[in-house]
Design goal:
Elements (H helix, E strand, L loop, with lengths): L2 H13 L11 H14 L12 H15 L4 H5 L3 E2 L2 E2 L4 H11 L6 E5 L5 H9 L4 E6 L2 H14 L4 E4 L14 E6 L14 H4 L16 H9 L4 E12 L3 H10 L3 E6 L6 E7 L3 H6 L1
Parallel strand pairs: 3-4, 3-6, 4-5, 6-7
Antiparallel strand pairs: 1-2, 7-9, 8-9
Length: 283
């Protein structure tokens, strides 16, 4: 079979897969092409070459894995993120980098850092930045530290609950605080696509509060002790949560609260600025 015939057949299989959330136009074709890239690189895209039967069999096995809901990054093992391995939250990282580049001695903290893509991007793009990432998951912090070593980037990845693991010496000095929290309500978990429920850790999806806003409320309140006056809190959530999160940030005393979106437009980044109330919050 030709590469294009393999791709066309794979698209049919993926479009019919109930475990996949078909939210993006042509997503199935994009992912089928990515799966073939894993096996033979991208040269095939320049023509319509005949694919070796053994490669075709391996490709069909990858397609079958994707049809069960297994995400392509899990199948590949890595994903590109602003020139580094990963993809999700690129706009969150972009918003942070843009604000940090103006600082003489920038300090950044990434809460719920996971494997560390946002923190690593900041360290990669903002030279001299002091960067921290925190997470409750021991496995996630271990992976983030391995990513940092592999990329040769200086990020302090700390195991702890939100701000609990951070050194007190940076309290009141953080320029940008990024947060991609779990925000799915406890009862909404069952409505998530199978490809999310089967392959993502539950703690990365929900804080088990009724509306999924518990951790966001905590972060908005506790961040006052860590941000410097004029510092930024950036929170990534789904589009349908942006209005509720904006309300939480305003009630917590933040100003300049805005909902922004990147090219994909799937999620929103709420940007909020800390004012002089930081001093009164500490007393």
């Amino acid at each position: 079979m030709t590469a294009q015939e393999l791709i066309d057949r794979a698209v049919e299989i993926l479009e019919a897969a109930p475990a996949i959330d078909h939210w993006q136009k042509d997503r199935e074709r994009i992912e089928a092409e990515e799966l073939l890239d894993i096996l033979i690189g991208t040269d095939w895209r320049a023509g319509d070459e005949i694919i070796d039967p053994s490669v075709g069999r391996r490709f069909r096995r990858l397609v079958a894995r994707r049809a069960t809901g297994e995400p392509v990054p899990y199948i590949r093992g890595t994903v590109e993120f602003r020139g580094l391995p990963r993809e999700s939250s690129e706009f969150l990282a972009e918003q942070a980098v843009r604000r940090l580049r103006r600082r003489r001695t920038p300090v950044a903290v990434d809460l719920a850092t996971g494997s560390g893509p946002v923190a690593l991007s900041i360290a990669n793009e903002v030279k001299g930045a002091e960067v921290y990432g925190t997470d409750l998951s021991k496995e996630a912090i271990g992976l983030a530290r391995r990513n940092a070593r592999k990329l040769g980037l200086d990020v302090r990845f700390l195991l702890g609950d939100l701000f609990g693991a951070l050194p007190r010496r940076i309290a009141g000095r953080v320029d940008v605080l990024t947060f991609h929290p779990p925000y799915v309500g406890r009862r909404e978990l069952r409505d998530l696509p199978e490809e999310v429920l089967k392959f993502e850790p539950v703690m990365s999806l929900t804080d088990h509060s009724p509306k999924g806003m518990g951790l966001i409320e905590r972060g908005a309140s506790e961040s006052w002790d860590w941000l410097r006056p004029g510092g930024w809190l950036l929170v990534e959530v789904s589009s349908d949560r942006s209005r509720s999160v904006a309300t939480i940030l305003r009630r917590a005393g933040y100003s300049s609260v805005r909902s922004t979106k990147g090219d994909l437009g799937v999620t929103r980044v709420l940007t909020a600025r800390a004012g002089p109330r930081i001093a009164s919050r500490r007393t």
